[in-house]
Task: structure prediction
Amino acid sequence: MAQITYRQAINDALSEEVERDENVVIMGEEVAQFDGAYKVTEGMLKRFGPKRIVDTPISEAGFIGMGIGAAMLGIRPVMELMFWSFSYVAFDQLCNNAAAVRYMSGGLINCPIVVRGPANGGTNVGATHSHTPENLVANHPGIKVVCPSNAYDAKGLMKTAIRDNDPVFVMENTILYNDKWEVPEEEYLVPLGKANLLREGKDLSIIAHGRAAITSLRAAEELKAKHDIDVEVLDLRSIRPLDEEAILETVKKTNNVLLVEENKPFCGVGAQISFLIQEKAFDHLDAPIRRISSIDAPQIYCKKLEDIQIPSVARVVNKVLEMA
Amino acid sequence: MSSETDIYKKPEYVSVMPDTDYSDAEVNKVLTPEQKIQLYRDMVRIRRFEERSIRVYQQGKIGGFLHLYIGQEAIAVGTVSLLGADDHVITAYRDHGHALAVGMNMNECMAELCGKHTGCSKGKGGSMHFFAPDKNYWGGHGIVGGQTPLGAGIAYALKYRGLKGCCLCFMGDGAVNQGAVHEAFNLAQLWELPVIYVIENNGYSMGTSQVRSSAFNEYLAKRAEGYAMAWDVVNGNDIYSVRAATAEAIKRAHNESMPTLLEIITYRYRGHSMSDPDKTYREKKEIQDYKEKKDPITVFQNILLAEKVLTDDLIQSIDKEARQEAEDAANFADQSPFPPEESILEDIYWEEDNRSEETTSQGTIIFE
Result:
């Protein structure tokens, strides 16, 4: 099977969906003429023209709101946020209008919009460009939240998100954009809410999402090679819906859980997962649930310290060694 | 800052009511007597609905906020009366007038105010969140200015589909200082969207007068010039003026796919909402002056009496019918059930409400 980058996988997903459905429009800052700030939409303007691939002004509240309005009438806009950090100036549009318009209208309206872009730290750009709001937006019923960790998922989840009739927020990761992964040539979809067992193991379970799942996978490989510890890695893929069944299954298998995420700790995704585990698998735990997240400070600029702030392979390995 | 007495003062540079006469405008000349009576009736219906809802509120049957449209009726009725099949409406939280104008019935509106299951949003939206997509009515939005990008999006969707339609997007005078409004204006002009932004300038953003909240350059609508957008100022107490100016804007939207910013000057008689005692920021005589000399219903009534379209008998019967309709709506709301408890978890996700073999999501989406 051919290996393609995470970036190419998203480009393929967007292109296939633009081709498939005339209502799909790709919109965002620099997505067309500039070929994408991170080149995710490279070549799409040339291929599909300016009606389908649309450059917006730097005006997130305006263009995201515009996409939501168009989606209410059945257009299926895929809006790129250059960084999910920029969603904060469009928060009213995302969390009042996209999230609640169906509910407030008693189900008369739905909003088939996708909002996508990178949501990660680790790139040496400081606090304003490094937010990971998957926990924040998942706190709003009405929204679906997806965090693909690899090219295969990025493509399959994106295509599913675009066909979804609810608002889906897809959080990508710039550090993963160049990572290659096996992706089949033929069309496939990955359902939302179906976690992926990245690695089977018997000694301990790591539950993670986004790039933290890949960090955990690397750590698990090192733990096996150097310490003969057999770690299972469950990649959540989507935060809402959440694959509770897969979480409980791995807990019951290894009885020892480490949660890894690039979110900040307070009310992070891990808080929800550990609540679930203590409620539904308490008797299966041999030890308290442990967690690794980004260190609880605004994202630091200094690269040397930022590498310490976000979860690293070394931090995961050390934590597992403490636990095992 | 203004001293305490200054807050009632209206400097010359706030938006002042234009006195242009539009009774001869083509769009008004073509009206049949029946159509004129219907416009009048629609205004009276809104007034009586709102008045009846005050009593329902005072009986403790309406919770939260209740923002009344009394005094502004000519705007919703005048603008909406010009819309065709591909024209759409979206507004802010003072939304009852527009809802009735687009053809929603009093029962579903009053029931929604009371949080009843028979309400237009099944009791889930409330006063500020009325919707009727089957009547091209997209709400009903609670955050000041938050609906203006949506209005651009509706216009975008029409243009994308190649339809000759437009979106009427209403806002209050307080909204013009919100960032989202200016982002929407920029997008509308930049992308040549057939959207008509209507500022219903009733003089006060909640309890803060326009002079205390907005930097003025003669008119609020003149801010459109910053975006090279067409704009106009309209006497909102005269439904003929409202229709004439709106017709021009619709023509621009339909024929040129270009936006317009209309500032329609109006007045609300009641407080910002029912929880506003209306004692601190304006003088009683100001309200009295509007009621006596500029009331949009009285103004139109006098015009139609002069035109011999209305008679005293007809005025009385229209009023009586509207009162009865509002009374029936209050009874309907009263007798309607509250939504069942399980409905709290319905209408959150389309996919959850439409589970079938085609739905793909797995896992938990609603949490305990």
In short: Strands of chain B lie at 88-90, 167-172, 195-201, 204-205, 208-209, 230-235, 260-265. Residues 1-5 of chain B have pLDDT under 50 and may be disordered. The longest strand of chain B covers residues 195-201.
